[in-house]
Design goal:
The protein is an alpha+beta fold. Helices cover 28% and strands 22% of the residues. The N and C termini lie far apart (81 Å).
Length: 292
């Protein structure tokens, strides 16, 4: 770690965790600025969460550091703060950088820092109260001269205040895991985000990466691995059964199996499906096949 820094006045978090948290947060709609990254500590290590408001990824960095004298208990950055430094954020997922730490320093001037410690109380002051934070990628001695591996950004109190509150995060843990049998629709691109809870930590691996999958009480999809989880909200467009998925696009009230297979083959296939998919949603087999 950096020896010439006051070890009480900065935050340190794993580069890959920060990069993957951003991958989720950046999926929000830029003009709304709803998504972001929340960082806090529970007294041991450091926690980071990225969200686009319809999906959420969480990591716990056992080796992370949250300074005792750091002037803020939590930090919330809107995702657009990182979009402006896309090159830096993408570099965090490179194999050579995944095991490194990102140091976050409060670079606010002394006068402004005194004001920000107590946060402005008036609405007019709150709109303009701000801090400057510098993100630095921990470098080896050979590349320490690379000054491009850092950036600074403003965090306004108004943005921080509308960020996600910790009590809402804690409520999530109370909902995992539960069971649900209701057919539900999810965005395929959001499901692919499950890949990000697997930390590669600088290793090229093609091995199977198992993940425990559950559903929360409100039917959100949840993937869990060691020190990480992802929650993906469902789309409320009604129940979606196999009948909806297999419906013919020709509008002839048939399904793709009726079209692709002979009636006799279809009858057997229908019975097999009924054994494994009780919510198949099709009519009785006598409706699609009636022997002479």
């Amino acid at each position: 770690m950096v020896n010439n820094m006051n070890k009480k006045n900065y935050i340190s978090i794993n580069a890959e965790m920060l990069g993957r948290a951003y991958k989720v947060a950046k999926m929000d709609e830029p003009f709304k600025g709803a998504g972001g990254i929340l960082i806090w500590s529970s007294g041991y290590g450091i926690n980071i969460m990225g969200t686009d408001r319809s999906s959420l990824i969480f990591f716990h960095d056992e080796n992370g550091y949250f300074g005792d004298d750091f002037h803020h208990k939590t930090l919330f950055f809107c995702s657009n703060k990182f979009r402006e430094n896309e090159k830096f954020m993408q570099s965090l997922l490179k194999l050579d950088n995944q095991n490194k730490q990102v140091l976050i320093e409060d670079s606010t001037g002394k006068e402004d820092l005194v004001k920000s410690v107590f946060w402005a109380t008036k609405k007019t002051d709150a709109m303009f109260a701000k801090n400057v934070f510098t993100f630095k990628l921990q470098e080896s001695k050979k590349t320490e001269a690379n000054k491009s591996a850092q950036f600074s950004t403003l965090m306004y109190y108004a943005d921080h205040a509308r960020g996600i509150k910790l009590d809402k995060v804690q409520n999530i843990f109370m909902q995992i895991p539960t069971n649900s049998s209701v057919p539900t629709v999810y965005d395929l691109n959001k499901i692919k985000l499950l890949d990000h809870i697997y930390l590669r930590q600088g290793k090229r691996s093609i091995k199977t990466s198992p993940v425990a999958v559950h559903f929360t009480e409100n039917n959100a999809l949840c993937g869990i691995r060691q020190n990480a989880f992802l929650i993906v909200a469902y789309y409320d467009i009604g129940e979606m059964t196999l009948k909806n998925v297999f419906k013919s696009s020709k509008g002839d009230n048939k399904n793709i199996f009726e079209i692709a297979l002979s009636k006799r083959k279809y009858k057997q296939l229908f019975k097999d499906f009924k054994k494994f998919f009780p919510d198949i949603g099709f009519e009785e087999d006598k409706y699609v096949y009636t022997p002479k």
